[in-house]
Write a sequence for this structure.
């Protein structure tokens, strides 16, 4: 019997998932993403949340908000999400990602990409305006603001839609978890404090 | 007994490693990195190779080769390497990364960062000139070329140095593996085709 220190724990190679939350600013993507992250962590999955604002600081300084720059940003997040998910991590992405073509490019080049549309009317998002960005966009302080002077192309057939103006956060999270369970998409791997062999 | 489909495989959460290969263009970083990647994969570790040229396409389009842009690039690769390694992956980075300060910033902010200096004299690298880049740098077609008109700051105390002008590739790879083994740095997790429970 090898010593505990030298013993190798074995586990199956398994793909994770990419849970891609798209929607307007203020629709609730990050709030749902964080709740989902916490829930999955408690169930002992490997989880990473890639949030648009944080990603911009770490991966995409210098990129702006033109269509070209947004597409580069989305592909970049997709690249990192793919690196993680192919090593078993459940990656939750919270990113406006307003253009359908580049979202579809990622979705259809992956077999573990779940497109989740966080769908709230722009009037609701603007009324919330938690970051004060809609006000700035309306008075011209911010240009290329999605939904105001820049387009948002709705997903045509997202796997899941969260109607975040009508549903509670928990309802949205449960809807996502039930979908994943039914689609048999949740990895069979969970963390253990004890190891396994 | 749950069905095989529903059964969850358990494994320990364990940090991976960041094996950061720095050195001049042509010193042999990518060659050593690829051999190391293959060796570790055969030993059933989770491994990802982040290679400078590929990273530039996927994460850093638009960045140039000024000190500022190089530092951004290095930090970006460090960010992705950290995301992967904290989920158990052994990340091999092959990147000139010529500036000491930003390498040290990554090294000393992580407890699983191994700095590996792939050390070959510039005369040897230039004589090899596999990509023809030194010739272009000499005749001015390329600017900011490390070692020619841009600095390379040698690591002061790398954990490992591969003298790639004197050692074979296999000797360098074995040196790295022995160091990792002695430092008890190799994760205890390996992949299994059979799962474990």
């Amino acid at each position: 019997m090898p010593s505990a220190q030298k013993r190798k724990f074995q586990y199956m190679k398994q793909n994770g998932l990419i849970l891609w939350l798209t929607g307007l600013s203020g629709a609730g993507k990050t709030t749902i993403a964080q709740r989902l992250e916490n829930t999955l962590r408690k169930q002992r999955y490997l989880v990473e949340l890639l949030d648009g604002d944080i990603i911009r600081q770490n991966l995409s300084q210098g990129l702006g908000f033109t269509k070209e720059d947004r597409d580069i940003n989305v592909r970049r997040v997709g690249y990192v999400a793919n690196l993680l998910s192919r090593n078993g991590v459940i990656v939750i992405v919270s990113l406006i990602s307003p253009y359908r073509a580049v979202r579809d490019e990622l979705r259809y080049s992956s077999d573990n990409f779940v497109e989740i549309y966080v769908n709230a009317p722009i009037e609701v998002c603007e009324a919330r305006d938690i970051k004060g960005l809609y006000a700035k966009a309306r008075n011209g302080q911010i240009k290329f603001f999605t939904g105001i002077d820049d387009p948002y192309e709705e997903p045509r057939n997202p796997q899941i839609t969260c109607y975040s103006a009508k549903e509670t956060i928990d309802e949205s999270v449960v809807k996502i978890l039930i979908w994943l369970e039914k689609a048999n998409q949740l990895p069979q791997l969970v963390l253990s404090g004890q190891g396994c062999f």
